[in-house]
Amino acid sequence: MLNKADIFTYPINEQYETAVAYFSMEFAIDQSLKIYSGGLGFLAGSHLHSAYELKQNLVGIGILWKYGYYDQERDENAMMKPAYVEKEYAFLQDTGIMVTVQVHNAPVHVKAYLLKPDTFNSAPLLLLSTDIPENDYLARTITQHLYDPHAPTRMSQSMILGIGGAMVLDALGIEPNIYHMNEGHSVPLNFYLYAKYKNLDEIKKRVVFTTHTPEMAGNEEHGFSELNDMSFFYHLQEHEVRSLLGMNDYNFNFTLAALKFAKRANGVSQIHGEVAREMWGSYPGICEIIAITNAQNKTYWKDVVLDDAINNNNDKAITDRKKELKKYLFKVVANQCGKLLSEDVLTIVWARRFAGYKRADLAMYDWQRFLNLVNDTKTPVQIIWAGKPYPEDGGSIDLFNHIIERAKPFANCAVLVGYELGLSAVLKRGADVWLNNPRMYREASGTSGMTAAMNGAINVSLPDGWVPEFAKDKENCFIIPQGPKDSPDADKIENENLMNTLEQLVIPTYYNDQKQWLNMVKKAAADIVPEFESGRMADEYYKRMYNS
């Protein structure tokens, strides 16, 4: 059986000696470890990569999802379909540790595996599984599907992550100074800690919380009595939880509870920090909410050859490498869609987690104008879409397939499936334009544009999430003007603004002023680091959340 000494294989930097346990439902560490769905996982993965580079005393706690999120495939009509394939990970180490969590008053055995730091250059990551012979069928299903659609299973997943994760740390002899909840999924951790310390103030000394959800409806909640029946509150009963946290509503809100347990919380961009304070500030007993903007790990995401060319201010080398990277992307397009794209044509990419508010089809809103754009032979464009909808979100899947159908007739438009870390990197390296057009104030942070800028793509974006902190319009990006706040015509207005930006600024600059285009590429790459590189973020968490 492993112990604390087996977890860290690197010497801890004395600046980062505070021991931190980082709880997250998903981690995007490497393409081969498919335990993530989207931005939350990409963020957590970059955090662990930078914690490794800075030699921080931080260990990740996550879940080993048997079927991952899902595999995005195509049906016989080339439409998207979800598939579920069992994953095998020979590179994980069995810790020999098993703990037992009571779920619905029944014992569920939890086995812990270790992703060692030197496997993928990340801080150590403990991954929990209930899919073991010691459990019955129902218990084994808890850790099979990330974000299972069944509410009791999702509650159980939170319990395994929060309570089971804390038990595993105890079994390893690791006593964190700080427990960091990355989103509210792991909130049952606090009830385990209360059983230890019997005092809310003692928990507040040890817990910090990151919220990622700028809409009230997106913050998970369930009925108190239902959670109580699930043993969600560990040794506490419903009335004790209500009294402890001063929560009197019918439902238990995960985010609100986390804000009451934590000593400090953060939103994930400056805008989101303001939104979060507005959302939760009227509730008594919540902690301070600051802003620590999300970031991404450059070591993981950069193309080394292109990065060297940008750093050396070598325009020819930038152009040559960008064409090579576009050719590589276009091989993927040809393989999936049977379309041959050209490395000499402006390539626009829209790719990220697929959700309605992100408006993947905004460019198609005015169909005639879209036709004019894609049929222009004097200044041609190529457009590629990719992204993963939630597998139970019929509306988003229908939209994804609708875009496939509408793009089919055009030799210069393609929709790719399999949007995971590997394809994400290929798209960012091959894109000239990284398009981001969410409904305003719905994007807490968004990070894909950061890694696109690291790889010579220019952001064309509405000023939401992290973008206002970075953007110098027409210098390091192109900003799409936003419409009037809360306007019922926002889609129409912002489609017009998007198309105007493309037609009047982006396309003419690409084809008529390559020097300015390359200046923008270099300016964007320079402005991304260090502010939007996750070394800054990992350091800031220590300074503003863990040690303060």
Q: How many extended strands?
A: 19
State the low-pLDDT regions, or none. Answer: none
Question: What is the overall silhouette?
Answer: globular
**Span between termini:** 35 Å
The overall pLDDT, averaged over residues, is 97
Tally of helical runs? 22
Strand order of the largest sheet: 5-6-7-2-1-8-9-12-13
Q: Radius of gyration over alpha carbons?
A: 23 Å
Q: How much of the residues is beta strand, in percent?
A: 15-25%
Describe the main β-sheet briefly.
Answer: 9 strands, mixed
Portion of residues in helices?
Answer: 40-55%
Please describe what this structure looks like.
It is built from 22 helices and 19 strands. The strands form four sheets. A nine-stranded mixed sheet has the order 5-6-7-2-1-8-9-12-13, sandwiched between helices. A six-stranded parallel sheet has the order 16-15-14-17-18-19, sandwiched between helices. The model has no long low-confidence stretch (mean pLDDT 97). The chain is an alpha/beta fold. Strand 18, helix 19 (467-470) and strand 19 (477-479) form a beta-alpha-beta unit. The longest helix is centred in the middle third of the chain and has 23 residues, at 315-337. Helix 2 crosses helix 22, helix 5 (151-172) packs across helix 6 (189-197) and helix 13 (304-311) runs antiparallel to helix 14.
